[in-house]
Design a protein that fits this description.
9-stranded mixed β-sheet, 5-stranded mixed β-sheet, alpha/beta, single chain, elongated
């Protein structure tokens, strides 16, 4: 049975793992805490970037000889394979760790088996401690491994009556500076930010992260079926990498040097560009988490494709009475087809309300 000290150490490891959000793909975020034989914390670490040392290695380096006879608390089962770095299970054995407690088993078939390796070496191993908390913090990577596509978070900002702009299409600003700053946090945690051509034309968005120290800039993705993007669009500057997804026959001669991918239409939903094909392309590029910032049409296409894993809505205490809604056609024609959500969080951000929800069939985040 887990002790209070075990829970405290693992919760700290979960918090450490979160520091790597947005910087580790295609690898997971992982945190590790090591205590010595007396239970004192002697080492901490987290996976900081893809290709760099794993969380366990950082923690073991900090602990040194004090790790011998101690306990390692890790948010994900220690890996058992050699890639750009060595197997963490073997590193823990070599350091003389007596006990390993992990939160979530590794579903990656290339890396799993660390627990068995540790047990074979005589290390006491326990799994499942604070699994729900660790899953929530690593949900993007876990989704990508289990489904073969990136995790998609749809973000929108609206009035209390669900409008994302006024009747004349003016929309800046519905939400507060505090809410907009919080969106930059979401961008900093994502591998890619996606918008459609409608948002591109209406707002000429930049989509890069601002105001978040040390942030890794996400890939900026524009879905633009007919390649109507103009050469001077802000999203094409050098602040962050950009990918423009166009239709098979689009003329892209006016944007030489821009990274372009050609996608088919979706025969199932009728979308001009296939959402599954886009997600497959992004997954192949190492993207494990997507922040969907597009308008109602693009959001509707993702919902229709069953490709929204989380919704974050910023609701401002404002009424407009008319104007575009947050969600367009999503393949839902009757109340029985409604996508039901479970609300996992509701917090005030400045004068606004941020609501987080996941599809009712999804694992609940705690």
């Amino acid at each position: 049975m887990a002790t209070t000290a075990d829970i405290t150490a693992m919760r700290r490891a979960v918090a450490l793992a979160a520091r790597g959000l947005g910087a580790t793909s295609p690898n997971p975020v992982v945190g590790c805490v090591i205590t010595d034989a007396t239970g004192a914390v002697v080492g901490e670490g987290y996976h900081q970037r893809a290709g760099g040392p794993h969380a366990e290695v950082h923690a073991l380096r900090a602990a040194g000889d004090r790790a011998r006879g101690g306990t390692a608390y890790v948010t994900l089962e220690p890996c058992n394979h050699t890639g750009r770095t060595g197997p963490c299970a073997r590193a823990l054995v070599d350091a003389g760790v007596h006990r390993v407690v992990y939160a979530v088993g590794d579903p990656n078939p290339q890396a799993t088996g660390g627990a068995a390796t540790l047990r074979t070496a005589g290390v006491h191993v326990a799994g499942g401690l604070l699994a729900a908390e660790a899953e929530a913090g690593n949900t993007a990577w876990l989704t990508s491994v289990r489904t073969g596509r990136p995790h998609v978070l749809w973000k929108y900002a609206a009035t209390l009556d669900g409008r994302t702009a006024a009747e004349d299409r003016t929309s800046r600003w519905i939400t507060s500076p505090e809410a907009r700053a919080d969106v930059h946090r979401l961008r900093a945690e994502a591998d890619a930010v996606v918008v459609g051509s409608g948002t591109l034309k209406a707002d000429d968005p930049h989509l890069a992260v601002r105001g978040v120290a040390g942030a890794t800039q996400p890939l900026r993705v524009v879905l633009d079926t007919r390649a109507t993007i103009r050469a001077g669009a802000r999203v094409l500057d050098d602040a962050a990498p950009t990918l423009v997804a166009v239709g098979k026959d689009a003329d892209t001669g006016h944007i030489p040097g821009v990274d372009v991918v050609r996608l088919p239409a979706d025969p199932h939903t009728g979308a001009a560009l296939s959402v599954p094909a886009l997600l497959a392309e992004l997954h192949a590029r190492g993207v494990r988490s997507v922040l969907l910032e597009g308008g109602a049409t693009l959001a509707g296409a993702f919902v229709a494709a069953g490709a929204v894993d989380k919704v974050v809505g910023y609701l401002a205490p404002v009424l407009l009475g008319a104007g575009p809604a947050a969600l367009g056609r999503a393949g839902i024609s009757t109340i029985a087809q409604a996508l039901r959500l479970d609300m996992t969080e509701a917090v005030r951000i400045g004068p606004d309300l941020r609501i987080t929800a996941v599809p009712a069939t999804a694992p609940k985040e705690r």
